[in-house]
Design brief:
Number of strands: 13
Strand order of the largest sheet: 3-2-5-6
Order of helices and strands: HEEEEEEEEHHEEEEE
Shape: rod-shaped
Distance between the termini: 129 Å
Length: about 230
């Protein structure tokens, strides 16, 4: 009776072993993402970085260890967006990371240090250049200011004064001007609604109101622009 039970047990073990050997292996259903986060300048690993992944089917968050490593396992097959953030660094986002079944995506994420704000300076004007209720304003451009504003005239005559006028609020000048009767517009007026004077002497031509000289700033001490009604 005892021998019968022993033979039965041995037969059961043999049958279980045969079934185990003949059963097919089951395939995986998930994938993984892993890698390291490093500094863009030093290429050294960064610890404590928050790494998050998102997709329509799954979202996960991890933190890098002392070696800068992170890992996400058991991820549903999908397209993920990976974002890494750390204080003092600009966030980095990697989009379109595809996770496939039984595959591990290895990603090295590079973080760049954020620009430091040294300080802020608040500047407040003492008064507006154009004031409501005032129909005429006078603007004065000194010799030093005129030299600094010359570039506003563009690539025209090197000694052109058009750049000085272009620095005045309400004055519109076409860049690159030189020569006779070049257009200057003041507060939306037409080009023939501008009067010119040199040392108090009118220089507009009588029959078509054109200025009668080149606008040169050589030897000029001051430019005055009167903006007002036509």
């Amino acid at each position: 009776m005892r021998a019968y039970r022993v033979r039965l047990s041995a037969l059961s073990i043999a049958l279980c072993a045969a079934l185990a050997l003949s059963s097919p292996a089951f395939a995986g259903t998930t994938g993984a993402i892993g890698g390291h986060v490093i500094d863009s300048a030093t290429l050294q690993p960064l610890s404590g970085v928050k790494v998050s992944i998102t997709s329509p089917s799954q979202s996960e968050v991890a933190t890098t260890d002392a070696t800068g490593a992170y890992a996400f396992v058991s991820l549903s097959p999908d397209t993920y967006t990976v974002t890494a953030t750390l204080a003092g660094y600009d966030p980095t986002t990697l989009a379109g990371i595809n996770v496939l079944v039984d595959q591990n995506q290895t990603l090295t994420i590079v973080l760049k240090k954020a620009a430091a704000v040294i300080g802020r300076v608040a500047v407040t004007g003492t008064g507006g250049l154009v004031r409501a209720g005032v129909t005429s304003n006078v603007y004065s451009v000194s010799g030093a200011q005129g030299q600094a504003a010359t570039a506003l005239a563009g690539a025209g005559n090197l000694n052109s004064a058009y750049g000085q006028m272009a620095s005045v609020p309400g004055v519109s000048a076409v860049q690159g001007q030189q020569g006779w009767y070049q257009p200057i517009y003041i507060r939306g007026g037409d080009l023939d609604q501008v009067g010119w004077e040199f040392d108090g002497i009118p220089v507009n031509r009588t029959y078509d109101n054109a200025p009668q000289t080149f606008l040169c700033n050589l030897g000029q001490q001051e430019l005055q622009v009167y903006t007002g009604g036509t």
